[in-house]
Amino acid sequence: MEHFELRLASALENYQVTLNGILSSQCPSATQVLVLFKSRDRLQLLLDKSQYSLKVNHYETILELDQQLTVLITEASNTIETSLWVRSFNPPKSHWWWYLEKPLESARHFDWLWKGLTIAFLSFSLTFLVKLAAVFLSEGPDILGAFTIISQSTLTLLAAGGTLSKTGERGLEKFFSSQNIAKKYWGIIKLFLAITLLIMTVSVYSNLNRFSNIYLSRGKQHQENKFWSNAEKDFQRSLMLNPDNAETHFRLGLLYEEILDLEKAQMQYELATQGGNTSAKNNLAYLYIQQQRYADAFFVLNSIRNFAFSDSLGNLSFADTRAQKLAYSIRKNLGWARLGQMRFSEAAVQLNEAIRISPETGDAYCLLAQVHEQQQQLSAAINAWQNCIAFTDSDRPERDLWLEQGRQYLENNSN
């Protein structure tokens, strides 16, 4: 019995010295902890073989040392993987110190929830990304569209890789470790990144109108420089991003009219009128007049006839020169439509109003001269034809026809 107590006392002392030595160091090594475990193993073997009752002071010492051991292993579990030792040495289950694990922090209890939500938000991001790619790249890649898609795709793939693939997850966690971010926050940070990415993607998707207007502005520049192909591509991209962009439909209609594709021009004008574009309505009415659809032209124009308004003193007011030209064109086309319907008095009213808006523009004079001819007002017709010839260029087929018609009329009525 005395021999056993000596061996027990020696093992207990060795366990205590080894533990105190580790506790005195700020960062215990794996070797130190392994030596401590073996020291505790030897003590346990003696306790298991003991046929005698231990002294009370031995119980107290072992309990106190084991409490310190528990705290030590719990704190060291961040840097020392004791689970690997268990696989290698297969200690008995009763040797509990080999099986100690760091309890999960409260935040890590919800790691499964954070990961599930992260995957859900990434899925939403991928859905919006596919939609963005469809609208930005439908007319072929360009710098703005490619940059938008590539940047969003890169961020999404990085976030998805850090969550869904083992390699990506290890890389992301290695980065977190290098930044001294506590492990309990990793899942929350990944979720935050996924939410941020979704917000960015949705923000781009919800601002497609702005991107549409960017392409519209670029298309206008190409159109002004007569780069028809580039302008058409930009307008088409604008419409892919916002199919209801009335200004883009109008501009595309102008382009088609300039290249004499009148069927496509009419279709674009009709779409633009659905968005309330005044200029598109006026241009559409002009095309109807060319097709001798005078009633349809008047119907379209009648909804915008008050675009040119006057104050109580009869003074006209316009925001700018462009508005003045549009007001003139509307009144001129109204008079033209009424002329086509042979409603000469109404035509004269609209054409005189157009002349009041822009006295040095020839179209209204040319049409008014035809009205006076039909009304057999010789003097008024001659005066109108003279103004028509003075203020009109033959840059459109109908103008060239009017000029010839006016010259013939003046020649036949020169006496």
Strand content: under 5%
Low-confidence stretches: none
Assign a percent range to the helix content.
over 70%
Distance between the termini: 155 Å
Largest sheet: 2 strands, antiparallel
Q: Mean pLDDT, rounded to whole units?
A: 80
Radius of gyration: 44 Å
Task: Quickly give the structural class.
Answer: mainly alpha
- Annotation field: number of helices: 19
Q: How many beta-strand segments?
A: 2
Shape: rod-shaped
- Secondary-structure element series: HHHHHHHHHHHHHHEEHHHHH
- Lateral arrangement of strands in the main beta sheet: 1-2
How would you describe what is shown here?
The protein is mostly helical. The protein contains 19 helices and two strands. The protein has helices at about 1-25, 30-50, 55-75, 80-90, 110-135, 145-165, 165-180, 185-205, 210-225, 230-240, 245-260, 260-275, 280-290, 295-300, 320-340, 345-355, 365-375, 380-390, 395-410; strands spanning about 310, 315. Strands 1-2 form a two-stranded antiparallel ribbon. A hairpin with a 5-residue loop joins β1 and β2 (about 315). α13 (about 280-290) runs parallel beside α15. The N and C termini lie far apart (about 155 Å). The model has no long low-confidence stretch (mean pLDDT about 80).
